[in-house]
Specification:
With 338 residues, this protein is of the alpha/beta class. 38% of the residues lie in helices and 16% in strands. β12, α9 and β13 (312-315) form a beta-alpha-beta unit. 50% of the residues are buried.
């Protein structure tokens, strides 16, 4: 059924098809038809103090404003991450900014953190009726000067704290100028220290501890991955998400749209992401839980991430190409390894 729907949706421009697909899913989610799409495999998993029904989550980026949260919850993800959200609403980069590369099972996007702002997201979450495990991914506004980036993260952290089961600090999108620079050196150390201090203040204020993860890029040298991992450990960050999209084009340069600016996701980033996961695991051992993401388009690819060191996984581009059946396939494959 999904293959037929995808064939029709892929005749539309990517952003249009996204809106049509998930608006339709919102409608179907309130009917018995949703059971035809939903994952039926269970694999209870403990992660960061959270009890997940299974270890296969949805990565941030698909539901930037928590507009489809209820429907996504009905598909049977173990957890759903929404965002990236910024303090103020922003329109993102000019269109077109989203490109399919079907021969590579990949997508290039340069969306630019387009979102309705953190306050609207929180209203959407409150109205959604979603009851699953929720991650909220936070970022900085494009107009915010680099030296003030921490203020945006701290503002969002405080606003979403009571609404999230975990919070992700996105330092690795290639589509906000200068953002990836925050992953390195003194800027990273200062940012992580500020975030940790704010997290502990909020934990004391509200009497609950909400874990914080940091999402990193795949385009780092091995030595840089080691340094970043050590910085995350020293700052007592709760988890790492490895990885975001890549700016490399060697695998797709020959394809239509392969030279578009933006972040490349899907199968071409799979090996890079797994290599980063393996390096983080080598450096941190069991001290830094890992959410593995990048190129998961099958049960075997999910198992590959787990073998590299991921504790749980997230899907995004593979979900676009394969549909909800990917969730169950991945859960069953991971169950077979336990």
């Amino acid at each position: 059924m999904y293959s037929l729907a995808k064939a029709a949706l892929f005749t539309l421009p990517p952003e249009t098809s996204h809106h049509v697909a998930f608006s339709s899913l919102n409608a179907v989610a309130k009917t018995p038809l949703i059971t035809l799409l939903a994952n039926k495999a269970e694999l209870p998993t403990e992660f960061l103090g959270m009890s997940l029904p299974n270890p296969v989550g949805l990565a941030a980026g698909l539901d930037k404003n928590a507009e489809y949260l209820y429907a996504l919850g009905k598909l049977g993800f173990g957890f759903v991450e929404v965002g990236t959200v910024t303090p103020k609403a922003q329109s993102g980069n000019p269109k077109p900014r989203l490109f399919r590369l079907p021969k590579a099972q990949a997508i290039i996007n340069r969306m630019g953190f387009n979102n309705l702002g953190v306050d609207q997201m929180l209203r959407n979450i409150d109205a959604s009726g979603y009851e699953g495990v929720l991650g909220i991914n936070i970022g900085k506004n494009k107009a915010t000067p680099q030296e003030s980036a921490v203020d945006d993260y701290l503002y969002c952290l405080e606003r979403v704290y009571q609404h999230a089961d975990y919070i992700t600090v996105n330092l690795s999108s290639p589509n906000t100028p200068g953002l990836r620079d925050l992953q390195f050196g003194d800027e990273l150390v200062a940012l992580l220290s500020s975030i940790k201090n704010k997290q502990l203040q909020l934990s004391s204020k509200y009497g609950s501890y909400v874990p914080v993860a940091v999402k990193i890029a795949p385009d780092m040298a091995e030595a840089d991955v080691e340094t970043v991992t050590k910085n995350l450990l020293e700052a007592q960050i709760d988890a790492v998400i490895a990885t975001n999209t890549t700016i490399a084009r060697d695998a797709v340069a020959h394809l239509p749209h392969g030279d578009e600016t933006g972040g490349l996701s899907g199968v071409p980033v799979r090996d890079k992401a797994s290599q980063v996961i393996a390096k983080v695991k080598q450096v941190a051992g069991d001290k830094l839980p890992i959410i593995g993401v990048g190129g998961i388009d099958s049960g075997a690819a999910a198992v590959e991430k787990a073998a590299a060191g991921a504790d749980v996984v997230q899907v995004y581009t593979g979900f676009i190409y394969k549909g909800p059946a990917l969730i169950e396939e991945a859960v069953r494959a991971l169950a077979d390894t336990r």
